[in-house]
Each structure stands twice: as C-alpha cells, then as structure tokens.
Amino acid sequence: IDGAGEWQVFSQICLPLCKSGLFSIAILIFIDYWNMVEQPLILLSDEEMHPLSVFLSKINSGEISLAFAVAVIYMIPPLFMFLYGEEYLVEGITYQGGTKG
Questions:
Q1: pTM, full prediction
Q2: What is the DSSP string of 22-77?
Q3: DSSP 3
Q4: In whole angstroms, what is the distance from residue 85 CA to residue 99 CA?
Q5: For 8-25, how does the pLDDT look when each residue is reduced to its tens digit (9 = 90+)?
Q6: Nearest-5° angle of CA 99, CA 21, CA 51?
Q7: 95 φ/ψ angles, rounded to the nearest 5 degrees
Q8: CA distance 88 to 8
Q9: Are 4 and 12 within 8 A, CB to CB?
Q10: Could you state, in order of their start, the residue ranges of all structural domains in the chain?
C-alpha cells in the first residue's frame, strides 16, 4: 500500500472487495429490465418496438404452443446470466461485512 497511487489503491483493493456486490447488482438489474412489461406498454406507441415480454403477455390461449416456444427462448439469456454470475450473486447477497481474526 505504501507508495501506491490512488488508481492502484482503487483497482487493487477497492474493486476486488466490491466485485461480488457489483456483479449481484448487475444481475438483478438485468433481470429487472428483461422482465419489464408495463413501461414499454405505456411509453412505446409503436407495437413493433415492444419487447418480447410484452408479446408474451398478449398471447391468446389459441396460440399456446407458440407461447411456450417463445417463453423457452425468452428464458435463455437471463438463465445464462444467472448461471455465469451465480457465485457472485450469492456472495454479494450473503456478505455480512469484514472478517474476524
């Protein structure tokens, strides 16, 4: 730590300590934005601009096989995001603060 500049202290001490918290926040924000339904319905007037989540909410019971196929495809990106960052997410949520000893 002696002789280290501000950037070195930040990049070698602060970022490793914050890594799990930042990853857990990124995963939760991604999933929150991925599942938005109300905001696009209110803010976007052009139906061609609506995300897939809005399309899934509008599918009628007559097209149930299409709905299931689209739902499986729709789940793939958040599932990969969760599987990639699962250890960081659990570590960031369960972190109790410093170590003893």
A1: 0.66
A2: HHHHHHHHHHHHHT--HHHHHH---GGG--HHHHHHH--GGGHHHHHHHHHHHHHH
A3: T
A4: 23
A5: 888 888 888 888 888 888
A6: 165
A7: -65, 125
A8: 23
A9: yes
A10: 19-92
Instruction: Give me the residue label for tokens 């991604």.
Output: 30
Confidence band for 92, pLDDT divided at 50, 70 and 90: low
- State the DSSP code for 98: S
10 Å CB burial of residue 2 (0-12, 13-18, 19+) is exposed
Confidence at residue 76, expressed as pLDDT on a 0 to 100 scale: 92
Determine the 3-state secondary structure of 2 from DSSP: coil
Let me know the angle formed at the C-alpha of 12 by 94 and 2, rounded to the nearest 5 degrees.
125
In tens, the pLDDT along 34-84 reads 888 888 888 888 888 888 888 887 777 677 888 888 888 988 998 898 888
